[in-house]
Amino acid sequence: MSARVVPYYCPYCGEEDLRPYEADPDSDVEIRGGWHCADCTRVFAVKYHGMAAAQIIAPPPSTAGPGPE
Ligand SMILES: [Zn+2]
Hints:
The chain is an all-beta fold. The protein has a domain at 1-47. It has no helices and three strands. It has strands spanning 18-21, 34-37, 43-45. Strands 1-2-3 form a three-stranded antiparallel β-sheet, with no helix packed on it. It starts with 17 loop residues before the first strand and ends in a 24-residue tail after the last strand. The mean pLDDT is 85. The chain binds zinc ion (ZN). The site of zinc ion has 8 residues, from loops.
């Protein structure tokens, strides 16, 4: 299993020119597994939070049928 999955699109501008980003060793910024978007120059990381079950959404109340008269 790969430790790093490649994002295909920048989540901010939607462009595809993404490259792995490693912060300058002298920088105060600590980014692990970061990506740099060459188009909008943003640096971001993708984080896995876990799995969740799909929400059950109740249908809207029906307006058809017998109503008060
Ligand atoms: Zn971008």
